[in-house]
Each structure stands twice: as C-alpha cells, then as structure tokens.
Amino acid sequence: MELLSLLFMSSCFLTLSGLTFGDQSGTSVIVREGDYAILPCSLGTSIEFVRFEWTKEGTEKEVYIHDTGVDRSPALPGRVSHFRDDLENGNASIRIKNAQLEDGGNYTCDFPSRRKTFRIELVVGAAEPEITIFVRLYGGALLQCDVKNAYPKPTVEWWDSNNQTIPSEEPQVSKKGERFFITVSTTVKKDDNYCCVATQEDIWHQSQKKIYIHLNSEWHFSH
Prior knowledge:
By secondary structure, the chain is mostly beta strands.
C-alpha cells in the first residue's frame, strides 16, 4: 500500500504532464491509445533553417524530417506534424496523431549540423478506468470499474477516501493482442468517496475515477 500511495501522489504530476522523468534526453512520454503523442525536443535557438530528423529504433524510414521548409514523414505519413510557428524558438517537437501500441518505442531527435541528439521513449497504452455499473442494493451499492486497451497490464483496485484498498471481487481479465481489458467489482455499504485506481508500475503511471456514494441521495462522479 505504501508503494501505491507513493505512485498516487506522483501521478498528479505525471499524468497531467505526460512526462515521467528527466529532461529532453532520456524523457518518457506516456499516452493512451488513440490520443495525440507529443515528443519534446528543443535546441534553444532558432531552427527555422536547420535540418532536424526524427527516427525510431528498429524502423528503417525516418519518422519526420524538417529541412529548409520541406517537411516529410516517411514512416508515418499523414500522422506526424511539428510546431511550425515555434521553430524560431528552437522547438523541434513532433506530434503523432492517433497513437497506437506499435508506435511505442525509442525515438531520436537529431540535429546533424549541430551534432546534437536527444532520445525520447514513447509508451502507448496508459490505463484509463471508467465506472460503468452502479446499482443500489439493500443496504449498499454495487460498483463496477472497467479498464480497456491498457498496456502494459495494470493493477486495478477500489480505494476508499483514505486511499485504503477495499475488498473486491476477483478481477476479470481478458487480452486481445497486447491490450488488456480488466473489470473489477465491489460492494460498498457506507457513504464515502470511492475511487477506482489503475496502476502500471512498469511505466510509473496511475490514473483514477472517483464516485461519491450517498446511499440515500444522488451519486456524483469526478476524475
């Protein structure tokens, strides 16, 4: 529980920023499948007329090339763009549309003429829990939480307002390709804020969905 509490405290920054550690070189970016993925890279000086190249480990074609106003994305045509209006500020970051699991991996941002190289890891498959069933029972309520398309496999738990794990049914786990689908249900018998928490320790990512249960009135959701 101590480790999970630490992850919970850390995730407030990690989830919002999308960055897990480090400066540009050695940075990890974590996104959900289907989201935009922004890979950061900056030289700190104008690069409007400076060639820079993005490559991915294990891929023969370049992910993105900017060279004196000519931009190409051979490996991911139509899915990669950069921040053209920010080139004068040295911003060579790229944005990948509709990120897929296979987009995950190690990327390199290279400035050949400046002999500068930055490395970024992209992780696709961040878990996002959703509370899908809430049924009033005699003296309590049944809550169900679903996590879909997650990679790597997350641990899914129900917590109370004290961040303590509460008893739940055995998780239902299925897998399609590399994607995990997990359902966890619990029955609660008192008024409280309850939280479904998905933790991916391998990538230091955690997200949550909350619901306030008042057994004699309306229920309210929050992120």
